Amino acid sequence: MRLSSIAEVSGCEAVFLNHNDDHPVWLVGPQLDAEGDLRGTRGQIPQPGSFTHMHWLTEDGSLAEVEALLGVDIEVPEEGNVSMASQLTPGVVCPGYFLQIQATETFAFQHGGEDIPVSPGIDNRTHLNLVTSIPAEE
Fold it and tell me: Where are the domains of the chain?
């Protein structure tokens, strides 16, 4: 992976919600509202651009490259320091980075038993995994 822009990783932190045979789902910008319910905010998603995918950082992954790029130390929680989304526990807050995915040619992305046609340009179909709100607990 090649990281080229600080905006893609600066301050990115998300709560892992679930993983059901697709890309892991992340609540971006986790915070508690006045009633104590967990909410998110779109404010962390970089602009301009079309960033639709968040990936968490691990000590065995690209953490060292991101730390060198930003000139900071990023703490990875033990429960988030796993290589597979199926190993994550819902509710863990992980540092990560946003991706804007661009297709360079026409193809069909095969995932979860579905063929997704993709044309050249910004790809907002194949790797969506961000949410900015979740229902309040009842």
Answer: 6-131
DSSP 8-state secondary structure symbol assigned to residue 41: -
Task: Answer yes or no: are the C-beta atoms of 3 and 109 closer than 8 Å.
Answer: no
Strand pairing report for 93-99 and 13-18 = antiparallel
**pTM for the whole structure:** 0.81
Q: Determine how many CB atoms are found less than 10 A away from the CB of residue 7.
A: 16
DSSP per position, 47-108: SSS---EEEE--TTTTHHHHHHHHTS-----GGG--SSGGGPPTT-EEEEEEE--EESS-EE
Mean pLDDT of 99-124: 91
Residue 71 has pLDDT above 90, yes or no: no
Contact predicate 101/53, CB 8 Å: yes
Average pLDDT over residues 96-108: 91
Task: Quote the CA–CA distance of 86 and 43 in Å, as a whole number.
Answer: 27
3 state DSSP class of 118: strand
